[in-house]
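=== RUN LOG ===
request id: a7f3
mode: sequence -> structure
chains: 1
length: 251
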Amino acid sequence: MLKEERQQHLLNTLKREGKVVAVEISVQLNVSEDTIRRDLNELAEAGLLRRVHGGAVAKAQTETTYLARSQQQVDAKFSIAEAAARLAVDGQVIWLDCGTTTTQLAQLLPHDLHATVITNSPPAMVALAEHPYLEVIGLGGTLNKGTLALVGASAITAASQFRADICFLGVNGLHMEAGVTDFSYEEAQIKRLMIDNSAAVVALASAEKLGTVAPFVLAPINALTHLVTEQEVSEEVLHPFASRGISIIQA
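=== RESULT ===
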């Protein structure tokens, strides 16, 4: 088998199974593990996967600015946010993460909802100002101008003071083995507090984030109670999440 054929086989396996194990693929293709490792290294250098011990996992897409992301997958984000908003009920303390989908969620929360919302997202705060019965608590901190999130020591200290009924979490990668992951080191520290200090954790994730891995781990996959994603995602992709007891909502 030619190198190009081997590497395409690796990418196909990665897309289908979410990971590649070098020793297993070497047996399947009847080549040495060293050959597979070289192929994986070349694909990693090309930005097509993320190398891990013993193989590789799918790589999450590189994070772009808030403005750029707000113009991408507009319909999918609206549908996901609309479905997630139905989980908000009167009397809750709600963690609302930063991100374009969570800001969309802020805009779609029912106008008769009586709840408290805590967020590190200035765009979400602006959207929540239109809701007459919500108490809105914004975390202090330093503004990440790329993602429009408040981060840093002040935000972390403030976040540690709250316990929430539900957390609506923006994520960059969800992988059964690697867990819930994110691109930002500083945002990851706040997201971990949100997860740890919430009774329910709802991940808002479009299809391309499932089965992928970003650099910073937030929590194991079973820290999630709900996953809200697109209608088009197949049962095969969602089954591993459901088997961990995660409630799946397809929008």
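=== NOTES ===
The CA atoms of residues 28 and 184 lie 37 Å apart.
The two ends are 42 Å apart (CA to CA).
=== END ===
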